[in-house]
Amino acid sequence: MNLRDYLHSCYISEDLTSVIMSILKAGKEISEKIKNVDIGTAGTENIYGEEQMALDVLSDKIFQQELKSNRNVGLIASEELHDEIKIGDGNYAVCYDPLDGSSLIDTNLSVGSIFSIYESSSFIGVAGKDQLVAGFIVYGPRLTLIISVSHGTIECSYKDNEWLVTKDNLIVSEGKMFAPGNLRIISERDDYMKLMEFWMKNGYTLRYSGGMVPDINQIFLKGKGIFIYPGCPSKPEGKLRLLFECAPMAFLMEQAKGIATDGNARILDKVIQSIDQKSPIYLGSIEEVKRVQTYLS
Ligand code: AFP
Question: Whose CA is closest to atom 19 on ligand 1?
Fold first, then answer.
């Protein structure tokens, strides 16, 4: 089955389908640029003061170009831009991280784009549970997509000029695999040290590349494990963005029978107060997330 037929089988409207296809068109173009464009820096900084790689800037422009040409999109927000931008009268609001893991580009590791679609006139005030669609594109040895339209979470692969459904019901259950983000704070957090000791003494497999998209994609495809990115006393909210990274990943994970919290609250219940808002995240199988919450107060 191809993705269009899958979306039709889930009663997704033609208008919303067209927005999804615009996003995937941008992703296909970005996948070509990653292979061919010079990976030097752009000499600019994003709103977090992080140096923008040339591909970050280019990927954002590609997303903007495709979304601005779709009359069904009225609002966009990008991790690389300061504010949300009204671009028309369309019903749908698309937020995206155009190139997540850009610091990995020069090492030739997999990176990705993350996206969400809401029906709202602003991203301020929405919560992750309001998402209509969430997904991420993986620019790896193969071009793949993890997406949910509230009918479970599926994987698609780009083959012969179309997106084909390659796994139609991803489930994340228990298993010994962990992706421990922000390990550098372990000197400030004895509880994190104790959690790491548990995982290591109990034969867990470490899988962490520094790219949220491939690291979480692995949990979906292996059907097990946990990804965490905790905060610390100096940065209690951590590094990952609630709107652009945590909320879409949480939506996909819950649709795959996993859970995602910030250590206290369900990620999908957290209301967006600002588009650059950050959040700690513990995401994966139910038992593993609950275990982490007992260690990381
Ligand atoms: P970059 O986009 O700057 O490479 O950051 C990637 C990321 O936002 C996310 O994809 C990773 O999970 C996380 O940062 C890795 O952060 P650390 O480098 O602190 O582990």
Answer: 182
